[in-house]
Amino acid sequence: MSVVSVSTEHRLPRYVGAAFLVQFVTSLTAGLLSASVLTDGMPGVLTRVAEDPARIRVVVVLELVTSLAIMVLAALLYQVLRDTGPAVALVGLVLWCAEALLLALSMLGVWALLDRGTAGAGVGSISSADTAVGTFAFGLYEHTRDLDMLFFAVGALLWYSLLLRSRVVPRWLAVWGLASVSLVLVATLMLVWDRSLQPSVVLYAAYVPFELVVGLWLLIRGDSRPPAELPVDGAALHVVEGR
To answer: Taking the model in full, what pTM does it have?
Structure first.
């Protein structure tokens, strides 16, 4: 009789799916909560922050969780896809870790907005000094987020090209990711070049559900490759002989 233990590597795609879902939920929730507050510039942003500081604190926590989830996701993707393209996977890992760090850094701007907004509310009005600091903080937030999206989009192109080559997910799903994130990259380059260009939301629409779908697919279905093509980790494969 022989007992074969399943390699941890065979379960990694499901972990990737879970990580996709966590960062999708936290990022989407943070975006929905902040959409009506962190917009339209000064002094309106400070006023809205002062009116609902608890919402902004929740946004900061959610975005920091998203940052951690992105780093975990990048590490898991690297483990799954490094055999398909070691150099490409390494660059993707670096880009998404940089994205996560920039996302966390952008929260410094939000914290500063929260500090100035609540300080102004405490004295009954927002001073010109608070507005000046708020303008700097809001600019830091916006431009850091633009850079974080740039690192995300380039990294995503690399990861999804590896997904296509490896067949860890069906071809149609990998192609969807590549096509939709290419539009996100176009929108991001427009913002990095000139924020006044304000790219259409249509450029983001195709990508929004992708992370949910790929996350659910990987979590439920796991690796889409035939069993014969799955990686075998010699250190994790044990055959025990018995009577």
So the answer is: 0.85
Scan for tokens 């176009």, then name that residue. Answer: 186
CA distances from 88 to 19, 91, 93 (A): 20, 5, 9
For residue 58, the model assigns a pLDDT of 94
Tokens of 225: 């490759």
pLDDT of residue 162: 96
pLDDT averaged per 10 residues in sequence order, the chain, 243 residues: 48 93 96 85 78 90 96 96 94 97 93 79 63 83 92 97 93 96 95 86 93 95 67 43 35
Give CA torsion, residues 136, 142, 147, 148, to 10 deg.
120
Distance (Å, rounded) from C-alpha 46 to C-alpha 119? 10
| Helix, strand or coil, per DSSP, at residue 240 | strand
CA dihedral 97, 98, 103, 107 (to 10 degrees): 110
Domain boundaries of the chain, sorted by first residue:
2-241
Closest CA to 24 of 178, 219, 192, 194: 219
Looking at residue 136, its amino acid is: F
CA dihedral 134, 42, 199, 146 (to 10 degrees): 0
SS3 state of residue 38: coil
Cβ pair 59, 110 in contact under 8 A: yes
CA distance 194 to 150: 14
